[in-house]
Amino acid sequence: MGKESFSQPNLESNAVREIIIKYDNKEESYTLLQDAVNKSQWYYIPKEPRLNEILIDGKPNPEFTLLRYQFVDPQSTSHSFDGGIMQFSIVLSPEPKALKSLDSTAKMEIGNPNLSLAALPLKSAQASIYTLGGDDSSRLVSKSFGTGLFPTFASQKAPFALYLTRWGADINDALIGNSVVSNTGIPIAITFTYQGLTPPASLKIMANYHKIFQLS
Predict the structure, then answer these.
(1) Could you give the C-alpha distances from 154 to 2, 53, 119, 120, in angstroms and in order?
(2) Rounded to an integer, what distance in angstroms lies between the CA atom of residue 35 and that of residue 81?
């Protein structure tokens, strides 16, 4: 009869490692957790969401579009109807070069050439996108889609869409660096839960030896 097993990260202090990687003039830090059963299996905790990439003419490009529009609207006082649509997709997995560097660096620093690396198995995940304007965000963003349930696999992409007013299109165009020098981007927070095996607990029981055999 087969034995069923599950991925179970170990949360003991000696099973947690901080790994610093360097690639393409970048330096990043990742936290790794060792599996509770398979000591050669390690899991990286997702560092941050990043734009998904698609190949165009054989070259990777971010899956991101900011479309601005302007139409003649005779019924409007300004005689125009303008705004923007922003669409993009994100993933939790590192970019391929970072993942390759993390794998080789982990094998070297942990001292296990047979080490296997995978994304931390998630139990659940939620996404929140922070739109501009605070309590009066409707003046900049008329509608937004993507907040809520988020994929539990790091390689799964999650789509987002924002319908922008004219002012929202101008501000977001500046934030993503199209019209001015900027690299702040769009704030997105991912909250996730996962299961882990905590360090073993112990307790001490004291009993009267004679009472154990005493009949009531």
Answers:
(1) 29, 14, 6, 8
(2) 56
Separation between Cα atoms, residue 153 and residue 92, nearest integer Å: 8
User: How many Cβ atoms from other residues are within 10 Å of residue 87's Cβ?
Assistant: 16
DSSP secondary-structure letter at 93? Answer: S
| Cα dist from 24 to 21, 74, 90, 98, 101, whole Å | 10, 52, 21, 9, 10
Is the pTM higher than 0.85? Answer: no
Cα-only R_g, the chain: 25
Spatial separation of the C-alpha atoms in residues 191 and 205, rounded to whole Å: 40
Per residue in 53-112, pLDDT (tens digit) is: 998 998 989 999 999 988 887 777 777 788 999 999 999 999 999 999 999 999 999 999
